[in-house]
């Protein structure tokens, strides 16, 4: 698997997305159902209420029996990608890759996969100044729009307030919503949004970003930490605090995963120092279950 830093080093988001996703496409089979598509599958006897336009009149003329032509069609979904672009995503891992850099690669690869599956895919960037939305489309020009939006977004400010987020959950729509966030929140604002998304779209895959140096606390000696959203600083001895930090982190991660699953969310923790394959596999799994 290509590492995130190697993909990012390509400095070409469309190419990086394709390279990250193409290994999965070989094993991703289109979901099939019986319907009124273009590829003929079989006949079945007419039943009251069936669409008469699908009757095979030539066969009826020959046999005096009424049959419908059934075909196999690819099922498609609406996939809504949602990115928390608040300032905490500017955090850098030891490989000098930020959470936002990783999120760009991940969402671009997911968009590529979705389009290859025939899905309508859209993107919403959660910004403190408002939502930047690209409504879901299945046309060939959608990927360049998404790539441009991801390439130009910056990690800034705090998570948007409820009034700003309201249009995101204003109407119900059956869709697979993929939300990428580091879940940095002050008063449960991200959790409330996820609950509303679950209620309005039906399926939410939550991809929780954590940098490798956050998970492993690889810092050494005296370190000054600065909160990217509040500006507050904290100085400590990393070696002395490592054990206590890791205990508290594991407890928080466990509680976070349990709370998400109680809400009916599909939760998946991502280490931004690792390849994208785990997240892509989770996406394909959820998509196949919905098809």
UniProtKB/TrEMBL annotation:
The protein's organism comes out as: Hymenobacter polaris
Q: Which SUPFAM superfamilies match?
A: vWA-like
Mind giving the lineage of the organism this protein is from?
Answer: Bacteria, Pseudomonadati, Bacteroidota, Cytophagia, Cytophagales
State the protein's name: DUF58 domain-containing protein
Q: Which residues form the DUF58 domain?
A: 42-249
Pfam families referenced in this protein's UniProt entry, alphabetically: DUF58
User: Can you tell which superkingdom this protein's organism belongs to?
Assistant: Bacteria
């Amino acid at each position: 698997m290509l590492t995130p830093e190697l993909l990012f080093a390509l400095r070409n988001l469309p190419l990086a997305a394709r390279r990250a996703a193409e290994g999965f496409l070989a094993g991703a089979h289109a979901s099939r159902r019986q319907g009124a598509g273009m590829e003929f599958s079989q006949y079945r006897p007419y039943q009251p209420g069936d669409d008469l336009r699908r009757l095979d009149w030539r066969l009826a003329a020959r046999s005096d029996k009424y049959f419908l032509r059934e075909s196999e069609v690819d099922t498609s979904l609406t996939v809504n990608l949602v990115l928390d672009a608040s300032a905490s995503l500017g955090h850098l891992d030891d490989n000098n890759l930020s959470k936002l850099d990783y999120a760009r690669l991940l969402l671009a690869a997911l968009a590529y996969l979705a389009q290859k599956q025939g899905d309508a895919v859209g993107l919403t960037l959660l910004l403190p100044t408002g939502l930047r939305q690209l409504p879901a489309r299945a046309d060939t020009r959608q990927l360049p729009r998404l790539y441009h939006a991801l390439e130009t977004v910056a990690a800034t400010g705090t998570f948007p307030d409820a009034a700003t987020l309201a249009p995101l959950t204003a109407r119900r729509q059956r869709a697979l919503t993929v939300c990428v966030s580091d879940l940095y929140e002050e008063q449960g604002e991200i959790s409330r949004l996820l609950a509303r998304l679950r209620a309005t779209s039906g399926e939410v895959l939550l991809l929780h970003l954590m940098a490798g140096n956050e998970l492993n606390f690889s810092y050494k000696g005296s370190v000054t930490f600065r909160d990217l959203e509040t500006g507050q600083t904290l100085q400590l001895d990393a070696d002395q605090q490592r054990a206590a930090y890791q205990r508290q982190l594991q407890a928080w991660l466990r509680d976070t995963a349990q709370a998400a699953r109680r809400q009916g969310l599909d939760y998946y923790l991502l280490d931004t120092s690792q390849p994208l394959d785990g997240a892509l596999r989770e996406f394909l799994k959820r998509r196949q279950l919905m098809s």
